[in-house]
Amino acid sequence: MKIYKGLMENVPYPGHKSFLEGREQVEDETRAGRPSTSKTDDSVERVRSLVRSDGRLTLRMFSSELNLNRFTVHQILTQDLDITDELKGIPAEAFQHCYEQRKQRLRSCVAAQGNYFKGDNLDL
């Protein structure tokens, strides 16, 4: 087995030199560039308005529509907007009705065997 010592010796260690010169702080210094998070008051409001306009969107759809990453959208939905409490507020009957509609659509798609059909005009 070969050990590439020479390669590892040439790897720069960020901040190593500054500690040798007497730096004692380990926190990052502020620097210009992209912010560490894109979760701002504006992005929270944009997510809130999109949820109100269409609550059936997925995280991926939200992130694509708003140009935010999925993690940020998830944080906004769960922490800032507390969407889980709103979901818990949906009556069981309404949820069951939507679930039954979804099952019917799935059965229709399977019965169509990939063929196009419009609306509920498919005989099962």
Outline the structure in words:
- The protein has 124 residues and is mainly α.
- Among the domains are: 36-81, Arc Repressor Mutant, subunit A; 91-115.
- It has seven helices and no strands.
- It has helices at 5-9, 16-20, 41-53, 59-66, 70-80, 83-88, 92-112.
- Helix 3 (41-53) packs across helix 5 (70-80) and helix 4 crosses helix 5.
- The N and C termini lie far apart (66 Å).
- The mean pLDDT is 77.
Comma- or semicolon-separated keywords:
124 residues; mainly alpha; Arc Repressor Mutant, subunit A; 7 helices
The count of β-strands is 0
Model regions low in confidence, pLDDT < 50 over at least 5 residues? none
| Percent range for β-strand residues | under 5%
Sheet having the most strands:
none
- SSE string, helix = H, strand = E? HHHHHHH
Please tally the helical runs, counting DSSP H or I stretches of 4 or more residues. 7
Briefly note the CATH topology name of the domain at 36-81: Arc Repressor Mutant, subunit A
Overall helicity = 55-70%
Structure classification:
mainly alpha
CA radius of gyration: 26 Å
CATH C-level name of the domain at 36-81? Mainly Alpha
Give the end-to-end Cα distance, rounded to a whole number of Å: 66 Å
Mean pLDDT equals 77
Q: How would you describe the shape?
A: elongated
**Shape-level CATH architecture of the domain at 36-81:** Orthogonal Bundle
